[in-house]
Amino acid sequence: MAVVQPATLQSDAHHSLDGAPGEVETAPVAAALSLLRSAGPQVDIAIPVYDEEADLEASVRRLHGFLSTELPFSFRITVVDNASTDHTWAIARSLESELPGVLAVHLEEKGRGRALRHVWSRSEAAVLAYMDVDLSTDLAAVLPLVAPLLSGHSDMAIGTRLAHGARVVRGTKREVISRCYNFLLRATLSTGFSDAQCGFKAIRADRARALLPLVKDTGWFFDTELLFLAELAGMRIHEVPVDWVDDPDSRVDLVTTAVEDLKGVARLARGLVTGSLPLTTLLESASAERAVAARPGLFAQLARFSVVGVVSTAAYVLLYVALRGAMGALGANALALFVTAVANTAVNRGVTFGVRSPKDHLRHQLQGIVVFTLGLALTTGALAALHGLAPRVGRGLEIAVLVIAGAVATVVRFALFRSWVFPGASRASTPSTSLPSLMSRSAR
Fold first, then answer.
1. Which of 194, 239, 268, 332 supports an S-S bond with 324, CB 3.0-4.6 Å?
2. Has residue 434 been placed in a domain?
3. How far is residue 33's CA from residue 382's CA, in Å, rounded to a whole number?
4. Cα dist. 76→43, 58, 143, 191 in Å?
5. How many CB atoms lie within 10 A of CB 303?
C-alpha cells in the first residue's frame, strides 16, 4: 500500500494530554479518538445510482451483510438515487425500511459528483466513502480503505487498480483508457496518485467539509478534482491495491466521460498556470504547518515540455508562413521565433517547471531571450546553409530544415531551462516553506 505525497501537518506535532507529565499523545491518535467518538456512524458509504433496478437490491444486501459481520466500526449505507426513471427509487426505499443502517436519498438531477456532494455535506459520519453499485471492488478492501482514516494516519484513501498488488479483470479497451488518463494527469497536473477513476474512495469528514466547496465538477470528474485538490493541499492520500472485476454491463458512456474529463483536466491546468486555484484556502483546510513547494519531476517536465514544444512549433510555423510573404526568410524566422519564444518561456515557467510566483518573472524572460538567441543562431545557421547550397530552394524544404533545426534547438532549450533559467525545478525536492510564506505568496 502506497502513501502518496506525505505532508507534515500541524496535527502531526506531539502534544501533552491534559498537561500530565509523561503522558504524551500524538495528534493522529487524538484525531482517531475524536473520529471514533463521532455521534453518527463512524463510516458512511454512499452508492450513487441511476436506473440500477437490476443490480441495486442484490448489491446493497451483499454489502450490508459483509459490513455487519466484517467491519469493526459502526456504518451506514446511503443509496443516492440520481433522478432514475425506472424502479430504482422504489427499491431504495424498500431497502431503507427493511435493513437497519440503510438510508435512501433521492435527487432530481443526475451527476455522481452532485450526489456525493449532497450526502457527504449532510452526513454526520466520521469517514465518508463511496463505491459503485456493481461492487466491482472486492469488499475485503473496505477495512484497509477506512482504517487509516479512522486511525488518524491519513486524510483520504483510494482504491487503485494500477499499483503493484492489484488484481484486475477487465477489457483491453478500458485498461488502455484508464492508463492513458492517469498518465495525462501525471504529465499535465503532476499528480502523485496512481488511479483517479477507481470507484472506491474514502475521506475524513473534516477534510471533506474543507474541500467540497472548492470542487466545481458535478459529474464523473468530481473525484479526480477532489483528489487533486487534496494532494495540492498537502493531505495524506493512502492507496489500497484492490481486486477488481469490471462490470461488462456498465452504462458509462466512455466518449462523453472522456471529453468531460479532458475539459476538467484543462480547467485545473489553467488554474495552475493562472494562479486562480485557491491555494491559501487549501493550505488552511489541510492545517499545514509546513508544505513542500511542489515541482514536477524530470519525467513530468519532459512530457509537459514536449506538449508545449509541439504547440509552440505549430504556432511558429504558422507565424513564419504568414510573415514570409511580407519579409525575407531570415527576418520572418527571427520575428516568428522571438514571439513564440516569449510565449514558450512564460508557459514553460508555470506548466513545465512549476514556477508560479511573479518573483523573478522578468529575469526568467531575459534569460529566455538568451536561450532564444542560441535557438535563433541554430535555425538561422541552418537556413543560411540551405540557401548557400540551394539558393532557389522551395518553401517546403525551408520549413522542413527549420523544423529539424528547431528540434535541436528545443533540446538545448530544455537543458538550459532546467539547469540555468529554472535551476530549482531540477531538484528532487525543495526546501520546506512556512505556511505564512506560502499563503502570503499565493495572495499576491
1. 332
2. no
3. 70
4. 6, 17, 14, 31
5. 19
The CA angle 128-43-197, to the nearest 5 degrees, is 40
223 catalytically annotated: yes
Average pLDDT, the chain: 81
Please answer whether residues 264 and 217 qualify as being in contact, where contact means their C-beta atoms are separated by less than 8 angstroms.
Answer: yes
Reading the block at residue 277, the C-alpha cell is 486555484
414-418 LR contacts (CB < 8 Å, sep 24+):
414/301, 414/302, 414/305, 416/371, 416/374, 417/305, 417/348, 417/352, 417/353, 417/368, 417/371, 418/301, 418/353
Residues 195, 271: contact at Cβ < 8 Å? no
What CA–CA distances, in Å, run from 58 to 61, 219, 248, 265? 5, 25, 17, 35
Domain with 418 in it: 298-426
Q: What is the DSSP string of 30-65?
A: HHHHHHHT-SS-SEEEEEEESS-TTTHHHHHHHHHH
Q: Which three cell numbers stand for residue 138?
A: 472486492
Q: What is the pLDDT of residues 151-200, one digit of tens each?
A: 989 999 999 999 889 999 988 888 888 888 888 888 778 788 999 989 99
**Burial status of residue 225 (CB atoms within 10 A of its CB: 0-12, 13-18, 19 or more):** buried
pTM of the complete model: 0.62
Do 276 and 419 lie in a common domain? no
Identify whether residues 225 and 171 lie together within a single domain.
yes
